[in-house]
Amino acid sequence: MVDTKSQASCIHSHTGNIRARDISKEFIRPDGEKVIALSNLDADIKAGEFICLIGPSGCGKSTLLRLIAGLNEPNSGDIKLDGQTIKGPGYERGLVFQDPTLFPWLTVHDNIAYGLKVRHVYKHKKEEIHEFIQLVGLKGFEKSYPHQLSGGMAQRASLARALVNHPKVLLLDEPLGALDAFTRMNMQDEILRIWKERGTTMIMVTHDVDEAIYLSDRVFVMTPRPARIERIIDVNIGRNESLGRQRDSGDFLQLRSKILQILDFTGKVQQPEFYL
Amino acid sequence: MAERKEILRDKKIRFDYRSAIPSLTLIVALLTEILIPNHMDAKYRTLTNFKSVLITFTVVSLLLLLISIFHEKTRNRYVRKGWFLGGTVVFITMLNLVTVKLLLLPQIYFPSINRILNVYIEDKNLLLKCLISSFTLLVEGLLFGTVIGIITGILVGWSKNWNYWIYPLIRILGPIPSSTWIPLTLIIFPTSRGAAIFLIAFGVWFQITILTSSGIQSVKQSYFEVSSTLGATNLQNLLFIAIPDALPSMFLGLFNATCSSFVALMAAEMFGVKAGIGWYINWQKEMIAYSNVYAGLILIAGFCYLFITVQFKVRDKLLSWQKGVIKW
């Protein structure tokens, strides 16, 4: 299955380390009030790592992702991808939202081909589209329109669309948040399989502590007010054959309660906003 | 018994009573026409156009009835229209009764169907000329208005600078009815034909500009974000995201524009031109030739219907991805 072409791209994608230094980001709300989304944040992510950002809403995890994607610019500090400062969006940093945001006027095939077409490389890489359609299990749906797909299928298509550009970094903003439990677990394994096959650096925002432990090498636990990375947790649990972790093992549960404790950390009585 | 009915319903060869409605009503209409004599005081009471038309339609309807027994597709389409076609024939028959048969209405304003049909025979050449003239005028006006409307719509919807300068202009000029421009256009344009085209194009331009720009402005921001992270440039975002997403809105604009362009056409044909359906209707009205007015009205209705139908066909083809989302 793995041919020389995708092996080559594996080697190529072993670049993809991210280095963020002292980044701050503020937003002005419509009522004129300033909201600090991130303050003086540092982060280092190695090439090929799987990172999950977890935390209650308002902790700036999506903001961090958007800064790495280049959709917003930090007010201060800078983020470097392989030593190059990020300025604006680029195809080497793929992005998948919670909402699949497939273009409704294009078929599944054309949605996935979009990245290649706008980069004018479609002619040489036409065959790869079918590879990716196969990879995400959408064979036979090439000619369907997005509104004909189920939520899980649409999210697979959106994953394939981001992957077709061979991004060095794949940014996932709660990609499984809208899916039912079964589809969700399937998709988690699917993402791990793709990660293994392509060696892409993965940065995923999630609300789900279990999902974070199951998937990632390291979990960045973030807290709001001030929005920053509170703790970085190494997930030192062996991966099983599907690359995930044993969900009911003692280590898993221990790590889970540890993260939950950090999220509820301050000792102040406060309503947790995250979903469990 | 119920089972047998089920089997019959599944059969390819089937008779549906609704497919007989048009034929039945047409035969009734024909009998009315033949058996009831025209009123003694009715003018042109010897014309037989209506009878010939009824015979033709009866033959056609009987043929369709026959085909629809054996051909499923024809049957499904024909049956759905059965009641409507029958109703139309009943209405026309009643019209025939109250006009030439019983003479219940003043015949100067409500001429018999025979006389209306007769116009198409007597004024055949003039009407054809008018039809061609109106058609070319309309197409040219629509074409100019659409092209310029799409360009300004995209500029206003996409670029902040263009929006700043053009948008207020649209808001001020747009709602002014086309016909109020007539005095000015007559001075500016060297030919009255040019003025007429301008009047039609102007209304079209406004409608299309507004709906194109609002369509482009309401494209979801996340589409642009995804497109950018896939490597698209700004121009590609416009061409491959903004315009396709705004297309339904643009078609709505074109539909509105087409409807209003007929109004503008009537206004435009009131001056200068020496042919055209609008001109014909106006002229005949002044001569109190109401049968000719009706003939003209029927022509313009058919013309309108044809234009919109063609447009819908094009739209359905281009927007097949959102089948059934927008309905008119």
From TrEMBL, chain A:
One Gene Ontology molecular-function label: ABC-type quaternary ammonium compound transporting activity
Keywords annotated in UniProt: ATP-binding, Nucleotide-binding, Transport
First-tier enzyme category under EC: translocase
Domain ABC transporter: 18-249
Protein name from the UniProt record: ABC-type quaternary amine transporter
Top-level taxonomic group: Bacteria
Assigned EC number: 7.6.2.9
InterPro entries referenced in this protein's UniProt entry, alphabetically: AAA+_ATPase, ABC_transporter-like_ATP-bd, ABC_transporter-like_CS, ABC_transporter_ATP-bind, P-loop_NTPase
UniProt keyword annotation of Transport present: yes
Automatic annotation (TrEMBL), chain B:
InterPro entries, sorted: MetI-like (IPR000515), MetI-like_sf (IPR035906)
GO CC list: plasma membrane
Protein's GO biological process: transmembrane transport
Compartment annotation: Cell membrane
Major subcellular site: membrane
One Pfam family this sequence matches: BPD_transp_1
The keyword Cytoplasm belongs to this UniProt entry's keyword annotation: no
Keyword Transmembrane tagged: yes
Keywords: Cell membrane, Membrane, Transmembrane, Transmembrane helix, Transport
CDD domains for this protein: TM_PBP2
Transmembrane intervals: 20-40, 52-71, 83-105, 126-158, 164-189, 196-216, 262-281, 287-308
Ranges for domain ABC transmembrane type-1: 131-311
Membrane topology: Multi-pass membrane protein
Family statement: Belongs to the binding-protein-dependent transport system permease family.
Protein name: NitT/TauT family transport system permease protein
The species this protein was found in: Anaerocolumna aminovalerica
